[in-house]
Design brief:
Layout (H helix, E strand, L loop, with lengths): L1 H18 L7 H8 L4 H25 L5 H25 L3 E5 L2 E4 H21 L16 H18 L4 H12 L3 H27 L4 H21 L5 H26 L2
Antiparallel strand pairs: 1-2
Length: 266
């Protein structure tokens, strides 16, 4: 199972390199079901893996001219605050059993993975849907700081709770709230995801969770190697065609997680 898990870490990177996103959402189920990590550790490690993977992708986009650093900072600061607060204070304080209804007990694991499975659905839809450039009256980037603050805190909190990057929420927010062009929004979102995920991990989990650095380093390095393999394969394979199939695969994974947690786990 561990060998399969390491192979999946490579596949996560390849999918990121080929289609530019979505693959990192598989980190949590791989860590939870193939390496038998609990919900706290799986989501914590996922933040680290996603953070470094997004950082590599973001740097690549920067050299292509598709990263707006001011926008990344404006959106990133509240997102970092949201994820750090959740990882440092909320997750450690959650009880083993969140609530009971009759004989049914909703555990912390069921709650975290259940929400994770639900949020995989809009991710899958974002993979299936073609991105359309929204016509803008002006090319000038503008900021609604209050809405950005609220949006950043919410996205950061979601990232902290489920251990996923939240690019499907960040990209539309950049386009709608800051008037950013789609290609720039995609590149900038990677930088935001990288910083909020890594800061959430180091400021939250590094203080509250015992980290197996050897395992985490190997898993992350394999994912990064996969990104470069996927980028190379992208010269010969149409990533857009694979993206649709990957979207359907995420639907299947969401159903699998929900089934495992609510129908199999005791």
């Amino acid at each position: 199972m561990e060998l399969l898990g390491y192979a999946c870490s490579l596949i996560i990177g390849i999918s990121l390199g080929l289609i530019g996103g979505g693959g990192s959402i598989l980190a949590v189920p791989v860590l939870a079901y193939l390496f038998s990590l609990d919900e706290k550790v799986a989501t914590a490690y996922s933040l680290f893996i996603i953070g470094f993977s997004a950082l590599v992708g973001g740097i690549k986009q920067h050299f292509k001219g598709y990263v707006d650093w001011k926008t990344a900072i404006v959106f990133g600061i509240p997102a970092i605050a949201g994820v750090t607060l959740v990882r440092h204070y909320v997750i450690p304080a959650l009880p083993d059993v969140l609530f009971t209804i009759g004989s049914f007990e909703c555990t912390r694991r069921m709650g975290m993975f259940g929400i994770f499975a639900i949020l995989m659905i809009p991710v899958a839809f974002s993979m299936l849907k073609k991105r359309k450039e929204i016509e803008k009256k002006s090319n000038k980037i503008t900021y609604n700081y209050l809405i950005i603050l609220i949006e950043g805190l919410v996205v950061g909190a979601i990232t902290g709770f489920i251990g996923a990057g939240g690019g499907f929420l960040i990209i539309p927010a950049l386009v709608i709230l800051a008037n950013v062009k789609m290609k720039v929004a995609v590149g900038t979102s990677l930088i935001i995801i990288a910083f909020k995920s890594l800061m959430g991990f180091f400021l939250g989990d590094a203080f509250t969770t015992e980290i197996n650095w050897q395992f985490l380093t190997i898993f992350t390095l394999l994912s990064l190697v996969g990104i470069f393999i996927g980028s190379y394969m992208g010269n010969y394979i149409d990533g857009k065609k694979l993206k649709k199939g990957f979207g359907y695969f995420i639907f299947i994974m969401a159903a699998f997680i929900f089934y495992m947690e609510f129908f199999i786990k005791k």
